[in-house]
Amino acid sequence: MGKQPADKTARPATIRAWLRPGFRRRGLFVALLCAVLSLLPLVGTLGYFGALALAPVFSLLGVAVGRDAAAVAEAAATNPVAADDDELARWIAEAVATPSAPSPGAVVGEDGRSAEWLVDDCLTVGPDQQAQCRFDDSESDREVWIVGDSQAVTWSPAVRGALGGSADVQLLGREMCPFSSGPAVEQQIGGFTRVCDAHARTVLELAAERLPELVIISYGAWWVGEGYEDRAADTGEQLAAGTLAYAEQLQALGVRTLWLDSPPPGPEPAACIEAHAAGTSLDACAITLQDAQIARHETLDAGLEAGGVDVVDTLGWFCDLDTGTCPSIVQGVPTWVDRTHMGAAASTMRQQVVADAIAPLLQD
Q1: How far apart are CA 187 and CA 107, in angstroms?
Q2: How far is it, in rounded angstroms, from Cα 231 to Cα 213?
Q3: Which of 32, 43, 225, 336 is the most buried (most CB within 10 A)?
Q4: Radius of gyration for the chain, computed over Cα atoms and rounded to the nearest angstrom
Q5: Are 18 and 27 in contact (CB under 8 A)?
Q6: At 217, phi and psi to the nearest 5?
Q7: In the beta sheet, which residues pair with residue 256?
Q8: Per-residue confidence (pLDDT) for residue 128, from 0 to 100
Q9: What stretches of the chain show up as alpha helix (H) in DSSP?
């Protein structure tokens, strides 16, 4: 497909990294503290020795500015990667049967989010963030995009690992904005709908300009079951119809689309850790799927597939389908960093099954 190539030589990689907001904030913080510290010798001997004592600390902080993205990615990469769907399903079944605590060194909670979220600030990718959220992993101009709400950025470690440098990855998610529209979305986000509609239009306009090879769509929108009793019975159908309204425009451009449903809302990560520490019931280490959640997932998958979107059933990537149970920790790796988002290590664990899903859709 013809496309407008990206300029990969405009800025050296080091400069691009330092221009990212996460690095700028940390750099400013270190610079400010060091500037203040430099004045301490003026107030006497105590200040002088205080500066000497703290200098190594600030040196380490300075190193952290340049290393945190690599450190987050490296930490995630040291965790196990399932060889295929069968191995992942077996790991999940074992975790349901015998709940385990996180492995030593596992990152629990929000610090376990991906580097693309923590460092690159790609949770919401507006026009001003598009360049910093394009990851030039390949030497070609092939592009794979990930769109959706805050779930989009959580798939980045899996997708980048799956591609193995064969294509660049462009993140184009926006927090609170499923790549869908219609009554179900409007009921959930109200007046923010106009912001989400504008973001979707921007994505479609950019697609017409750059013609990515594949657009991966993922979002939460598990707006059914407990706490959502006021929602329509056809929420899954409504979400599918809204997504197809956008996907069909991508398909008209010759762009293939792939739907990867997000993990269902999970248990509070801290509750499981506390239960292990206290030696109490480990019920907090898993959730049981509700019938309404299963119906929403199956209906959404079926609706999108009927509309020409390639669909991979991801529910078994997070839950034991025989028992309907979704464990908090698999092979020592926490799945969720909060109630709704997959962590970097959990995403990396699934990179091979994502690779198996992507490979048939990419041109040779």
Answers
A1: 35
A2: 36
A3: 336
A4: 22
A5: yes
A6: -110, 130
A7: 214
A8: 97
A9: 13-19, 21-37, 45-77, 85-97, 115-118, 151-154, 156-163, 183-189, 193-210, 235-252, 269-278, 291-306, 344-349, 351-358
pLDDT of residue 25: 45
Which pTM value belongs to this model? 0.82
Are residues 141 and 6 in contact, defined by beta-carbon separation less than 8 angstroms? yes
Tally of CA atoms within 13 A in the half-sphere of 214 that contains its CB: 23
Contacts of 350 (CB under 8 A, 6+ apart): 81, 82, 88, 158, 317
Backbone torsions φ then ψ of 324, nearest 5 degrees: 70, 25
- Of 286, 230, 333, 241, nearest to 96 by C-alpha is 286
Place of tokens 């669909």: 311
- Look at residue 334 and tell me whether its pLDDT is greater than 90: yes
| Token couple for 311 | 């669909």
The closest of 166, 170, 188, 167 to 178, measured between CA atoms, is 188
Tell me: the pLDDT tens digits for 190-219?
A: 999 999 999 999 999 999 999 999 999 999
